[in-house]
Amino acid sequence: MTVFADTYDKATPAGSDDPAEADDRMRETKAAVQERENVDHYWPLTGTEVSNVDSGEHRKVTLRTGSAPTAVADKGFVYAKDVSGKAELFYRDEDGDEIQITTGGILNSLNLTGVQTAAGVKTFSSIPVLPASDPTADNQASRKKFVVDQIAAGAAGSAGETEEFNAAAPTSFTDLDLPNAGGQVPAANCLVFLMISHDSGATRNAFFRKNGSAFERRVSISSGLTEGVWVETDASGIIEWYLSANNTTVITSVAFIRL
User: Which of 58, 68, 82, 159 has its CA 20 to 30 A from that of 215?
Assistant: First the structure.
């Protein structure tokens, strides 16, 4: 609130006042007008004159809170209203559409930059374009193409019970190149589900591990039965395996998950 030194009183001078006081009243009026114009406009005094070349320009626009103005053709209104005890900025167009521009100390809109919390459901009329085509950070969204590219075309995570091995089993860790064996497991780091059987009349142990890994997984296969095992491949889709005896063994891939 501005405190003014000069009074602007339209009731003065009175008809009964001494005409000799007219010059005082005129100076009083000029001083009162200058004080009030100098609140939002640039009206500085140079001595007793408002003579600066920039005089009349705006310093700011002060809006008092009130009610929304009545819509008028070919006119738009910018004004302030009280919302929950806070002065907020509004715009009303000639059709009476009222737009709240600020809310709670921020713009009442989705900003192009910066951190912002958007409450409620936001519906986009067109598909947003994500900035990263090859996301690597935890908080980056993945595009459809990126997701599709991570899955082998036509496999959909299924290897279709493809035979990967059918021969005498090795008795020490040996590479099994799944992409080049059955062709359904992709040349990528995957978790593969395999089914194993052998022609021995006794129980045999099969050992599996990721190519180059020191950690192995053992599965015990009884005579005449088929057992399953999950094993991780390396980045080329290769695993290592062997059987505890040199029996004919069949390995079939059933499904995989790309890691």
Answer: 159
